[in-house]
Amino acid sequence: MSSAIRDYRRLLESKDIDAIVIATPEHWHAQIACQAMEAGKHVYIQKPVTRYLDEAFPGAGHGQAHRSGRAGRLAGLLGFKWHTAGKAVREGRIGPIVMGQGSYTRNNPRGEWNYDIPGDLGPQTLDWDMWLGSAPDVPWKTTGPAGNGQQGERYDAAARFARYRKYWDYSSGILGDLMPHKLHPFLIASGNPEYPTRVTSLGTHGVQNKDRDVPDTVQVLAEFPSGWSMLFVGSTVNEQGLPDMIRGHKGTIYFGQNVEIRPERPYAEEIEGGTVPLLGPTGEPHQRHEIDWLTAIRTGKKPNCDIDLATKVQTIISLAEMSQRLNRTMNFDEKKRTWTAG
User: Fold this and answer.
1) Other CB atoms closer than 10 Å to residue 198's CB: what's the count?
2) Residue 18 CB burial class (10 angstroms; 0-12, 13-18, ≥19)
3) Which of 38, 119, 224, 272 is deepest in the core (most CB within 10 A)?
């Protein structure tokens, strides 16, 4: 088989291929994943699992994964400190969860996602219509290459291809690129991953970037059925974040290289504080993600980040985007798989 194939569907037709990795722009994730599972392939999806929320539920990614029995996995979540925290929560070591908080922040002087634009990019090297797929039609026009993050204010087709995370047509920006790094771990650390009941989000352009649709700073607040809430802060123009922690009624879990429990003052005699022994190695190297996925394919075990967890996270991501763009709080009904603006 050729090392380069222009149409992914040719790969899915091959009987020699058992599994695929989906590392496309976000607007292609669900379509390729569903078609791959229909073809009997196992899938590994780079985050986020879909671009829009309706792609994630029965009839789309979530339902197809369960019907096919394929090992669907989203990249991420092998640091065992999060699993250690989840076990501590289930054991009641901090009492009922009150709130979680985390962040993912950067500050790139070139502008986040302003990757270099190849000088030879054009119809002779890129099937532009195929790349657009389900996204709105945009004619191929370009002003030429841009190296070292130059010409950041471009909105032309070449910039959309090389810097797609800046545009709503293909990406949710911080929400889909950075927030999953915190949401997957924190849902595991909660001890009982849940769908949200309510999500509200602010997205601002604190720096007057004229080169993107998506905000450069976001704040997301998600509420869960068991009564706790999660605060996430993301930024691409300031790198000062929030300390990772889970606040319980009787104690608080702090995350560094280890998991540390600090009792609340009224419960100092009841709650045992200190470092909690980890259930396994910490860190998130890509090789371990891939080994986990391949092991799931070979043994039938549940991947660490399976489609059920990924869909819960995607619900938060998508509702946060809706909240920002509609200027409304979003409510979610898990049983009906429906969402409404509050």
Assistant:
1) 16
2) exposed
3) 224
246 and 271 in a single domain? The answer is yes
Instruction: Retrieve residue 210's tokens.
Output: 């004229």
Strands (DSSP E) along 60-137, which ranges?
72-74, 97-105
Cα→Cα distances 244→21, 131, 249, 323, Å: 30, 37, 17, 24
Which pair of tokens denotes residue 305?
């980040």
pLDDT in tens, 32-87: 999 999 999 999 999 999 999 999 886 555 555 555 555 555 555 557 899 999 99
Q: What are 131's two structure tokens?
A: 């790349």
Instruction: Give the integer Cα–Cα distance in Å for 127 and 132.
Output: 9
Task: For 259, list phi and psi in degrees, rounded to 5.
Answer: -115, 120
The amino acid sitting at 157 is: A
Main-chain phi, psi angles of 218, to 5 degrees: -135, 150
Do 220 and 145 lie in one domain? The reply is no
The total of structural domains in the chain comes to 2
Q: Is residue 64 part of a domain?
A: no
User: Domain range holding 220?
Assistant: 80-109+173-282+309-341
Find out whether 294 and 282 touch, Cβ atoms under 8 Å. Answer: no
**Count of residues making up the chain:** 342
CA 280 to CA 295: how far, in whole Å? 17
**297 occurs within a structural domain:** no
User: Cis omega (within 30 of 0) on the bond before 281?
Assistant: no
66 burial (CB, 10 Å; 0-12 / 13-18 / 19+) is middle
Render pLDDT for 114-126 as a digit per residue (tens, 0 to 9).
Answer: 999 999 999 999 9
What lies within 8 Å, CB to CB, of 229 at 6+ separation is 98, 99, 100, 221, 222, 223
CA dihedral 60, 57, 104, 29 (to 10 degrees): 0
- Could you tell me which residues are beta bridge partners of residue 102? 232
